[in-house]
């Protein structure tokens, strides 16, 4: 495995790369030695240089973490990052049967290790602390990498991949909090400085090439209050030995961390299914599944349907990701970009038409094609075809009642 080539492949072509990874030997030690230590090392070193050598400023005050504390924080952060990846792999392996998947520790480790690539590389932005927020965007892309890898690595049905990924994300948030807390012990609390500051009033916009992300600070403050209250309830329940109440409070706390409910109530599966026809572009519907999954205070709705004829097969997925701003920012990050990429065999395009974002990926030989549409109300439509070219996939997308889906109004 060439490190640079693998990083490029998993970041730029995750859906094509996961089957390759799945077929490789399950070598946990080798992954640590040849892949993770480099990515985690770059992230930790960048944080040391940024916060201890360059420093950061706020309101006219310049601050640098002392060199010795910064070195200790770098080492501890590096080690805990590697430990966290293994712990999350254990969680992924344990969760798989609950979502209809298969337990396989080797593949679970590969899922988390390669899925974390974007987040680990995002640590490079810590070289300039003023840009460290951009690392958050990279971490959000890691959520998408995990989501695309779950069906391949853990054999979780695609209809359940979203719920599986969400639970894994929650566990990642908890693990990240632990890393930050332990790291702050060695940096005199500098790593927690942002957490202790009051959120500025109004919205904060972060501009990066090709996109702009707006963060509603009032919603962040509301979520923080909910997390604090849920944390107190969990501690009280644990003190009484009430494990059921403690588990419920934990779910509420994690749901608040992910912004559950901030985007409104999720659409009911039946509401989404009503817009999936029995026939699509000359193909008969052969299977359909509408489901609503709840996990850790979060609810997800989706509809997956299959259409076939003698020539090929098309799968249509309609997912509601708009009820959770963090999830929508992660899975819909591509909608903020414009892409035109073409090789000898493949084409990838991201564009907007009439205010709606589209993404197309297809092989020129017509063997496979995918098309995604992100609606303003947070509904994500994905159409993929086997032995169907991009024209066939476009025809299938056009045959859906997109106008009806766009008109769904979310209740607060």
From TrEMBL:
Domain called Yip1: residue spans: 10-177
Membrane topology of this protein: Multi-pass membrane protein
GO cellular component, one term: membrane
Compartments it resides in: Membrane
Entry keyword Phosphoprotein: no
Parts of the chain that traverse the membrane: 35-55, 67-91, 111-128, 135-154, 166-186
InterPro entries in the cross-refs: Yip1_dom
Keywords: Coiled coil, Membrane, Transmembrane, Transmembrane helix
Chief site of localization: membrane
Name the UniProt record assigns to this protein: Inner membrane protein YohC
Gene transcribed to yield this protein: yohC
């Amino acid at each position: 495995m060439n490190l640079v080539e693998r990083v490029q492949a998993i970041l730029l072509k995750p859906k094509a790369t996961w089957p390759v990874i799945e077929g490789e030997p399950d070598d946990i030690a080798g992954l640590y030695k040849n892949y993770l230590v480099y990515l985690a090392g770059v992230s930790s070193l960048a944080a040391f240089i940024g916060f201890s050598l360059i420093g950061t400023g706020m309101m006219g005050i310049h601050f640098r973490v002392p060199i010795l504390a910064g070195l200790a924080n770098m080492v501890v952060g590096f080690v805990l990052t590697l430990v966290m990846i293994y712990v999350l792999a254990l969680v992924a392996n344990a969760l798989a049967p609950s979502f209809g998947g298969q337990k396989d520790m080797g593949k679970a480790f590969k899922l988390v290790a390669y899925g974390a690539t974007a987040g680990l590389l995002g640590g490079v932005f810590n070289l300039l602390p003023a840009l460290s927020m951009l690392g958050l965007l990279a971490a959000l892309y890691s959520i998408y990498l995990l989501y695309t890898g779950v069906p391949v690595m853990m054999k979780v049905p695609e209809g359940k991949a979203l719920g599986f990924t969400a639970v894994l994300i929650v566990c990642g948030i908890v693990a990240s909090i632990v890393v930050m807390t332990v790291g702050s012990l060695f940096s005199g609390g500098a790593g927690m400085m942002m957490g202790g500051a009051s959120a500025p009033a109004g919205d904060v916009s972060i501009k990066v090439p090709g996109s702009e992300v707006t963060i509603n600070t009032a919603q962040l403050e509301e979520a923080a209050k909910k997390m604090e209250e849920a944390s107190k309830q969990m501690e009280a329940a644990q003190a009484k030995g009430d494990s059921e109440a403690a588990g419920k409070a934990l779910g509420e706390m994690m749901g608040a961390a992910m912004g559950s409910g901030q985007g409104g109530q999720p659409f009911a599966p039946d509401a989404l299914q009503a817009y999936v026809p029995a026939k699509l572009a000359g193909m008969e519907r052969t299977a359909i599944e509408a489901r609503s999954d709840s996990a850790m205070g979060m609810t997800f709705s989706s509809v997956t349907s299959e259409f076939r004829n003698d020539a090929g097969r098309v799968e249509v997925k309609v997912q509601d990701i708009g009820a959770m701003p963090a999830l929508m920012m992660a899975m819909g990050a591509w909608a903020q970009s414009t892409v035109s990429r073409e090789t000898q065999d493949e084409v990838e395009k991201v564009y907007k038409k009439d205010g709606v974002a589209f993404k197309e990926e297809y092989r020129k030989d017509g063997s496979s094609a995918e098309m995604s549409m992100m609606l303003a109300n947070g509904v994500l439509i994905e159409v993929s075809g086997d032995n169907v070219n991009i024209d066939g996939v476009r025809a299938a997308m056009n045959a859906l009642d997109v106008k009806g889906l766009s008109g769904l109004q979310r209740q607060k």
